[in-house]
């Protein structure tokens, strides 16, 4: 199963999003979070640690969703640091909608590529 | 450059980060989240601690240690950019006590290329690259004709002006980009800390002559 890694400057933001995503997708999708440990902010080391955590849980790949700006620079650096043999991809998607779309897609038994696409397509879903 | 010079460079930058912490925060408050000074200072004090308590034995090891320390202590784009740039540069530095001028220039060039690739910024985007790009371009050009010890100090002397020249620019990357035209008129904090680093490199190389 592909796992999701939610990266944010704020711990509350990703913890809350992880709760919401699990509620909607069910418990089968592995979800980890990174960022906002002591203060607001995210380092590459925090993201790398969460990548290792997911890999240790036996995921077949990881899709990373981030909030703004430097979360993506940290995530890219972390992917390089982790040097995982399993695919670890950063998704260009809105954090909340993208993570939910990807998790729900994975929960139907779909694979990594399909989940990634669902996350990216979340950009096009209008709210009103 | 020797490993001792390189160590001295980071200790100098640590002092500069501490002394300029409030100024960097003030610059960042105008176009970001007011923590660039605090972040750089926290990372550099950790680097200084490591350099003092267990100094790595080679240029490559020192560069790698600084990279990993910044990646784990400095949040935001600065930590990831300095860290990944230095990690790339550490592969260019030899696992020895010193390197020649061309290797130093190549390591700096790799540092800058890695930051460009990761941050996707170009010259004029109002970032740290507005100091690093002209500085490394001059260094690469001049290091073929003269020793780094005499080439670097005059380049370092220009760094502050390059940082100040970011004021009229429109931010294209990072948090400041959200401000659009309102970013104009403020000096970029990342370019300012980069100029402090060049000032230290200039001092260290100048005194190694």
Features:
heterodimer, A: alpha/beta, Rossmann fold, four-stranded parallel sheet, 5 helices, 50% helix, B: 209 residues, mainly alpha, Serine Threonine Protein Phosphatase 5, Tetratricopeptide repeat, globular
Characterization of this structure:
Helices cover 50% and strands 15% of the residues of chain A. Chain A has 128 residues and is an alpha/beta fold. Chain A has one domain: 3-Layer(aba) Sandwich (Rossmann fold), CATH 3.40.50. Chain A has a 4-stranded parallel β-sheet with strand order 2-1-3-4, with helices on both faces. In chain A, helix 1 links the parallel strand 1 and strand 2. The mean pLDDT of chain A is 95. Chain B is mainly alpha-helical. Chain B has one domain (3-207): Alpha Horseshoe (Serine Threonine Protein Phosphatase 5, Tetratricopeptide repeat). Helices cover 69% and strands 0% of the residues of chain B. Chain B contains 9 helices and no strands. Chain B has helices spanning 3-19, 21-31, 36-53, 59-73, 76-90, 101-119, 129-142, 148-164, 189-207. Classes of the chains: A alpha/beta (128), B mainly alpha (209). Chains A and B meet through helix 3 of A and helix 4 and helix 5 of B.
CATH architecture of chain A: 3-Layer(aba) Sandwich
Question: Biggest interface and which pair forms it?
Answer: A-B, 17 and 22 residues
Count of DSSP E strands of chain A?
4
Structural class of chain A: alpha/beta
Number of helices of chain B: 9
How far apart are the termini of chain B? 10 Å
Topology:
The complex is a heterodimer of chains A (128) and B (209).
Chain A: E1 2-7, H1 11-25, E2 31-34, H2 44-56, E3 61-66, H3 70-82, E4 88-90, H4 95-107, H5 112-121
Parallel strand pairs in A: 1-2, 1-3, 3-4
Chain B: H1 3-19, H2 21-31, H3 36-53, H4 59-73, H5 76-90, H6 101-119, H7 129-142, H8 148-164, H9 189-207
Helix pairs in contact in B: 1-2, 1-3, 1-4, 1-9, 2-3, 2-9, 3-4, 4-5, 5-6, 6-7, 7-8, 7-9, 8-9
